[in-house]
Automatic annotation (TrEMBL):
Cell compartment(s), UniProt: Nucleus, Nucleolus
GO annotation terms (biological process): maturation of SSU-rRNA from tricistronic rRNA transcript (SSU-rRNA, 5.8S rRNA, LSU-rRNA)
Name of the protein in question: Ribosome biogenesis protein SLX9
Pfam families linked to this entry: SLX9
Claim: Nucleus is one of the keywords in the record: yes
Family statement drawn from the similarity comment of this UniProt entry: Belongs to the SLX9 family.
Role, per record: Involved in ribosome biogenesis. Required for normal pre-rRNA processing in internal transcribed spacer 1 (ITS1). May be involved in the movements of the replication forks.
């Protein structure tokens, strides 16, 4: 019996192969057939594979268009460019100085005293000792930079700096030199910041 079954299985497999071989030439010989237009109405027109391909293709083209705008520029380079553009938008003290020169305010102050300009140059010196007992008197026209300044990035430091700035602003407004000639006082402040 066992040998008989093996024989039957072999014949069945051979018949299947022969039938598959015979049907292929018949399909090719018939060629394309006209399909019924109402057939498969319940099925979607796009297959799942086509949908997936269309979605991925549209996404890839969108990504390629966005990357072509950057043209292979790294993120850090883009950040540097944006930072440079932001800095260019900020008002600059040099522009104010140039506009003061164009208005003639700077020339008036130059005529009043040439030797005064040499004394008005500010020299910034780093403080080595913060305690007043060990400190030496600073040269005239110099600013002592202290390490323990409040940090503008912290909320508390920004609040302290804002208070200091309002105090300094009120003292500048009360200053006699500023009241007499505000542009000259502005010029002095700009020169000190350079």
């Amino acid at each position: 019996m066992v040998a008989k079954k093996r024989n039957q299985l072999r014949t069945k497999a051979a018949l299947r192969l022969n039938q598959a071989a015979e049907t292929d030439p018949v399909d090719v010989a018939m060629g394309p057939q006209v399909e019924d237009p109402k057939a498969f109405l319940h099925q979607p027109r796009e297959t799942k594979k086509e949908k997936m391909y269309n979605k991925s293709h549209s996404f890839l083209t969108k990504v390629q268009q966005q990357s072509s705008l950057g043209a292979g520029i790294s993120k850090s380079a883009l950040r540097r460019r944006k930072r440079k553009l932001r800095d260019d938008l900020k008002p600059k003290m040099h522009d104010l100085l140039v506009s003061l020169e164009q208005e003639g305010v700077l020339q008036e102050t130059m005529e009043h005293g040439q030797e005064h300009d040499n004394q008005s140059v500010t020299k910034i010196v780093a403080a080595k000792n913060l305690s007043p007992a060990h400190s030496t008197p600073a040269e005239s026209g110099s600013i002592v930079v202290k390490k323990n300044q409040p940090n503008i990035r912290n909320q508390k430091g920004a609040k302290i700096l804002a208070q200091k700035e309002t105090q300094r602003f009120s003292t500048v407004l009360r200053d006699q030199q500023f009241q007499q000639n505000p542009f000259a006082a502005l010029k002095e402040v700009i020169k000190m910041q350079k």
